[in-house]
Design a protein that fits this description.
elongated; single chain; about 65% helix; 6 helices; mainly alpha; about 120 residues
Length: about 120
């Protein structure tokens, strides 16, 4: 594992000390999910978000949105990550990857719930 030295404000240093050994996991999660500041070729690191963006770019109607499902490949990857988590062998970057997928699923759950509650 590499060692990195950073200069940060005292206030931030105090907060970082509170998370101690969890800092590598926190950094991995933040870096994995910070897609907007990445180069264009890595704009969306999470395959599920790529699928959502491509889907929404087609201007789907309400029923298409209600019927939307992630690809089998993404669903298989989510299952694999869940298995690794339950087996206790999940790496921090895999946890961050799973968290990204969870965000996509939660976004669509909220969108679908809104559409059910507010039919056009």
């Amino acid at each position: 594992m590499a060692t990195i030295t950073l200069e940060v404000p005292d206030e931030l240093a105090a907060r970082l000390e509170q998370i101690g050994d969890q800092l590598p996991e926190v950094l991995a999660a933040v870096l994995y999910n910070q897609t907007l500041n990445m180069p264009d070729d890595a704009f969306v690191a999470n395959q599920a978000w790529r699928e959502v963006i491509e889907f929404l770019a087609q201007a789907p109607d309400v029923q298409d949105i209600l019927d939307f499902k992630l690809s089998d490949a993404v669903q298989d990857r989510i299952e694999e990550l869940l298995f690794l988590g339950s087996a206790g062998t999940q790496a921090p970057q895999e946890r961050a990857e799973l968290d990204g997928y969870v965000q996509v699923i939660q976004f669509f759950d909220l969108l679908k719930a809104h559409l059910h509650a507010n039919p056009a």
